[in-house]
Amino acid sequence: MDWTDFMAETEADITTLAREIPATAKAFATMGAAAKTNGALNEKTKEIMALGIAIATRCDSCIGFHVRSLVRLGITRDELCDALAMATYMGGGPSYAFSAKALKAFDTFSDRA
């Protein structure tokens, strides 16, 4: 998968949907901003949790969004791989495969490809 093209298409699709359901889109964005606010857990920790959930639910676009956020927040490859090991442990074979996708996304978004 080309993560850059995939995410561009996903964002275009979400923009199209948001035009059709603006109140829902606005509420979802507000909820996301509130959930990511630093509190007892910082944003990076919360994004690692979100990535684990994205892997467990096998959501490619979610993996892309959260890996991209983690790159912006400065996650290292070692930190990411630790998180992917836990996701694999908790989710078994399917999470192993989707963790590999997350690592490829990291390589793309961090210019390691």
From TrEMBL:
<protein>
    <submittedName>
        <fullName>Carboxymuconolactone decarboxylase</fullName>
    </submittedName>
</protein>
<dbReference type="InterPro" id="IPR029032">
    <property type="entry name" value="AhpD-like"/>
</dbReference>
<dbReference type="Pfam" id="PF02627">
    <property type="entry name" value="CMD"/>
</dbReference>
<dbReference type="InterPro" id="IPR003779">
    <property type="entry name" value="CMD-like"/>
</dbReference>
<dbReference type="InterPro" id="IPR004675">
    <property type="entry name" value="AhpD_core"/>
</dbReference>
<feature type="domain" description="Carboxymuconolactone decarboxylase-like">
    <location>
        <begin position="22"/>
        <end position="104"/>
    </location>
</feature>
<dbReference type="GO" id="GO:0051920">
    <property type="term" value="F:peroxiredoxin activity"/>
</dbReference>
